[in-house]
Design brief:
- This protein has 196 residues and is of the alpha+beta class.
- It has 4 helices and 10 strands; from the N terminus they run ββααββββαββαββ.
- The strands form 2 sheets. Strands 3, 4, 5, 6, 7, 8, 9 and 10 form an 8-stranded antiparallel beta sheet that branches.
- It is globular and about 45 Å long.
Length: 196
């Protein structure tokens, strides 16, 4: 068991740690590229469907996936950018444009992802872990279709994504915060870890 909480006036929730048996992510590599403290989004969804469903809701609260992505610069410092995660039946992914954040992920792979702020409360979803590059062309095509379909008003096509690297995000830690509105002094935090 893990007990996570905050300081005075903050609520906490007890969250069980669940051992993870790693299996290949559908079309996105194999278990040999994952450490014991990482899991796929689908495995998280099976172990904690409540967290995955709430997290998806917060990441997609504006109709498309929107989040802040933190990566690790080559000097060890943090880098933070907005980005567009994609969640489908295969996992949690993102197309990353040629940029310093893409280079960070190719070099290091560690990440933290945080949902955009909500309009009417301080609910939040955070995950941290590692990424891996996706080489499966069938999966890439399906995710390109999803990305373009979610943004029909932008007149995108596959060519506009051709220089983007597709990454799968493998969570090792997840935090869901629920509040009753802005200024709630008793937020409820639910923390999950892939391994103890």
């Amino acid at each position: 068991m893990v007990v996570e909480g905050g300081g005075p006036g903050q609520g906490f929730l007890v969250s069980s740690e669940v051992p993870v048996q790693l299996a290949p992510a559908s079309g996105a590599g194999d278990a040999s590229t994952m450490s014991a403290d990482e899991t796929t989004w689908n495995q998280l969804s099976e172990m904690r469907p409540d967290l995955a469903q709430a997290g998806r809701g917060l990441l997609y609260q504006y109709g498309v996936g929107l989040a802040f992505l933190a990566t690790v610069r080559s000097d060890g410092g943090p880098r933070l950018h907005p980005m567009c995660p994609l969640i489908n039946e295969h996992g949690l992914f993102a197309f990353i444009v040629p940029s310093p954040k893409r280079d960070d992920l190719l070099r290091d792979g560690r990440f933290a992802l945080h949902s955009f702020p909500a309009d009417d409360n301080e609910d939040a979803f955070y995950i941290a872990g590692r990424t891996r590059e996706v080489a499966d062309q069938g999966l890439r095509t399906a995710l390109e279709d999803q990305f373009i379909g979610e943004r029909k008003s932008l007149s995108l096509d596959r060519l506009s994504l051709s220089d983007h690297v597709l990454f799968e995000f493998l969570p090792s830690t997840c935090l869901l915060t629920r509040t009753t509105g802005h200024g709630d002094d008793r937020p409820v935090h639910d923390v999950w870890h892939a391994s103890s």
